[in-house]
Design brief:
Blueprint: H1 4-7, H2 10-17, H3 21-30, H4 67-72, H5 81-104, H6 108-114, H7 119-128, H8 132-142, H9 144-152, H10 164-183, H11 190-212, H12 217-246, H13 251-272, H14 283-295, H15 298-308, H16 312-337, H17 354-383
The structure holds zinc ion.
Zinc ion (ZN) binds at residues 83, 206, 210, 355, 359.
Length: 385
């Protein structure tokens, strides 16, 4: 298959590669860092230009290994081992969470097909109906007094020997029978599972990118773009639960925010296709673009707080979202500043360099967003629109 590089702008490619030719010559002379084996690990100075991303990581590079050895290097020690595994483990965490969520937050479609009532939930509601908190909640949303007056009392037949207690108990059971199916109604799940898919795609693409990019310039070119596409997917789909469930009852703002972030994400992916965007000089610009996309999430969060700031679920989900923002912001600072390896070059080549911390912070941020998503589902399942 022809590499995308071959079809890219020849001028920009030449500009990008122009400084590499002397280094290419060096590669053949210096690539004997470890031993004489087939695939030695090499030093930074021996790398071809396209692999030179971080001069503070000095040793243990794989460079242009055969594809088989590159794939098998997932099980060997080099300076990308933890970069691969931090996001591969993150991928499996999110795969497990998706299976868990599918089983515990079934979709509307599954619910319609089964047409069963959740007996556990029904009994819980039945026994807790006397609770003033539950009654207060139901009263404000479904108008409990009217429910009793209009639907329960007119349909009851009273026996002469019935006590007040047994009448009240009967009314309570009738009310429960009416409300239980309403309590089981579910809002659509796709925004939540879109986020889970976006997170898994991002983590898997990132892991593959770190594993395979060293194979050749062609692989590096393609895998880096898949990596940026994955990051954009994670950021865009992170907006979906926030915007969809917060503005579920306001189609104008829901569609406005969702269209904006989707277009922003597509534009970011298109910009990242430009070869010059890959060069080290553009590291701050790359980080900046993704930061802008993430920061734009503050607008719907503030809007949500203005509208629903008095609701516990909204405050809780906002707390998770702020924590997520903190994790991502810290990750971007570490990524852009290349901390801690810039302070002690060569000391964090295998363990502890900035990209590994960046990966861990991304997984932590995505996990807090998952928690926010579960809060949104519970909120809208109970309250509806
Ligand atoms: Zn990475």
């Amino acid at each position: 298959m022809a590499c995308v590089v071959e079809n890219s702008s020849l001028a920009s490619r030449h500009a990008f590669m122009k400084d590499c030719s002397p280094i290419k010559e060096k590669v053949t002379k210096k690539r004997r860092f470890v031993d004489e084996s087939k695939c030695p690990l090499v030093e930074y100075d021996s790398l071809p230009c396209y692999q030179k991303h971080n001069e503070f990581i000095i040793k243990y590079y794989r460079s242009e290994w055969p594809l088989r050895e590159t794939i098998l290097s997932i099980f060997s020690i080099h300076n990308e081992t933890l970069n691969v595994w931090t996001h591969l483990i993150g991928f499996f965490i999110f795969l497990s969470l998706t299976v868990f969520a599918t089983m515990n937050f079934p979709t509307s479609l599954q619910k319609t097909q089964s047409e069963t009532i959740d007996i556990h939930r029904f009994n819980k509601l039945n026994t807790s109906l006397h609770s003033s908190e539950v009654i207060s909640t139901l009263s404000s949303n479904w108008n409990l007094p009217n429910l009793i007056a209009d639907f329960v009392l007119p349909h009851r037949s009273y026996q002469p020997n019935e006590t007040t207690a047994s009448i009240l108990w009967g009314v309570k059971e009738d009310v429960t029978n009416i409300i239980a199916p309403l309590m089981d109604r579910q809002t659509t799940r796709w925004p939540f599972f879109a986020f889970m898919s976006g997170a898994m795609f991002c983590l898997l693409m990132s892991s593959l990118c770190h594993l395979l990019s060293c194979h050749s310039h062609c692989y590096d070119y393609v895998m880096l773009r898949l990596d940026y596409t994955g990051i954009s997917s994670l950021i865009v789909t992170s907006f979906y639960p926030l915007v969809f469930y917060s503005f579920m009852c306001d189609p104008f703002f829901r569609n406005l925010y969702m269209s904006f972030i989707t277009l922003f994400g597509v534009a970011t992916v298109l910009v990242s296709l430009v070869p010059i965007f890959q060069t080290p000089e553009f590291r701050p610009a790359r980080a900046g673009l993704f930061v802008c996309m993430g920061v734009s999430g503050l607008v719907p969060i503030l809007h949500k707080m203005i509208l629903f700031g008095d609701r516990a679920e909204v405050v809780e989900s906002t707390g998770y979202e702020l924590l997520m923002g903190l994790f991502y912001a810290l990750g971007v600072v570490v990524y852009a500043a290349r901390i801690p390896e810039r302070w002690l070059p060569g000391k964090f080549d295998l363990i502890g360099h900035s990209h590994q911390w960046f990966h861990v912070l991304v997984v932590a941020g995505a996990y807090t967003h998952y928690l926010a998503g579960t809060v949104y589902l519970k909120w809208r399942d109970v309250e509806g629109c």
